[in-house]
Specification:
By secondary structure, this protein is of the alpha/beta class. It has 11 helices and 12 strands. The protein has helices at 2-10, 24-39, 131-141, 148-161, 172-184, 188-197, 201-211, 229-235, 247-250, 281-287, 305-319; strands spanning 13-18, 43-48, 66-67, 81-85, 106-110, 121-124, 215-216, 222-227, 257-263, 269-275, 291-292, 296-301. It starts with a helix and ends with a helix.
Length: 320
């Protein structure tokens, strides 16, 4: 933590980036670092390859995050240092790598067990439920007093990566952290309602379609469903509307692993995996070049859909 804080103090101009297809923790961590840099009068640019999910736009500073896919011709920019948050390996920041000069030092802050510890300074806590939790501890360690804006940002990352404090990564420290953030003035019930209860009409249509394809292995320990490009087009759904669909197969009684396959127009298949208790799905994802956590992971395959399903099932059975 001392090295991470000193890294930030040593430089003046920063690029702050998280993983592609950002989730709540990725965006919260980006904004939290931005909040600290602003507080310390540093110059910085926050960027992500993909659009920020609209459900996260209530957080202060979201509109300041530059979207790389909207500026595809941007070349290397002049920064003193880069801070990567919630990103298990450098390549996961996507095309933003084209913005970064090769000699620029990197601070890597993350909680994924599959993190390969890139960068000059790597603050990695595999026991943390979210990168936002690590940042809270970092701020507390540095004597940095949070305001409601920063507390709301950090609480959002904590809430989303613990599934509303329901997942097995919800430790006593997570609850202590949440309590401290609520004491600052965070409106926890409003955030939970927005992120865990509401859904768009397009998302409901997408769930309806995908559940009609829900399938199981004979022993009903593995379940899966899939979404096609036509589904996305005809329902008007965005990538953010896929959030949570993978939990439907996993939540069926007796199912140990549920997975969702999202077929892209290019034929690439993005696979999201969730485990109940027995299987380390990070190992399944790593077999295909992906990664993640023991209970939640992902990977990408470039084979036909049926072949992808068979390959995932085979690897899950090995873990079982």
């Amino acid at each position: 933590m001392n090295q991470a804080l000193q890294f930030i103090k040593n430089y003046d101009r920063f690029l702050v980036v998280a993983h592609v297809s950002p989730d709540g923790d990725a965006i919260s961590s980006t904004l939290a670092v931005g909040w600290l840099l602003r507080k310390w009068n540093k110059s910085f640019v926050m960027v992500n390859e993909n659009l920020v999910p609209s459900r996260l736009d209530f957080m202060e500073g979201v509109s300041d995050i530059h979207i790389c896919e909207q500026h595809p011709d941007e070349g290397p920019l002049s920064f003193d240092a880069v801070i990567c948050v919630d990103c298990a390996d450098y390549e996961r920041i996507g095309s933003v790598t084209g913005w970064i000069q090769s000699h620029v030092p990197i601070l890597n802050i993350d909680h994924h067990p599959t993190n390969n510890r890139y960068g000059e300074v790597a603050l990695i806590r595999e026991d943390a439920a979210a990168t936002a939790e690590i940042l809270f501890d970092l701020f507390e360690h540095g004597g940095i007093v949070l305001d409601v804006e920063a507390a709301t940002i950090l609480y959002t990352g904590l809430l989303t990566d613990t599934g509303g404090f329901r997942y097995s990564n919800t430790t006593p420290h997570v609850m202590e952290t949440a309590s401290k953030l609520l004491q600052v003035g965070v409106q926890g019930n409003e955030i939970a309602d927005r992120l865990l209860e509401r859904m768009s009409y397009a998302q409901m249509l997408l769930i309806k379609r995908s559940l009609a394809r829900l399938e199981f292995t004979d022993d009903r320990k593995i379940a899966w469903l899939y979404v096609t490009p036509e589904d996305m087009l005809e329902t008007g759904a965005l990538n953010e509307d896929l959030e949570g669909i993978v939990n439907y197969p996993r939540n069926v009684e007796g199912v140990q692993v549920g997975f969702l396959l999202k077929v892209n127009e290019s034929g690439r298949i993005k696979v999201s995996l969730r485990s109940s208790s027995q299987v380390n799905v990070a190992k399944v994802a790593q077999h295909f070049g992906g990664g993640g956590h023991i209970r939640a992971a992902g990977c990408t395959l470039t084979v036909p859909l049926e072949q992808a399903i068979e390959a995932i099932i085979e690897q899950v059975k090995e873990q079982l």
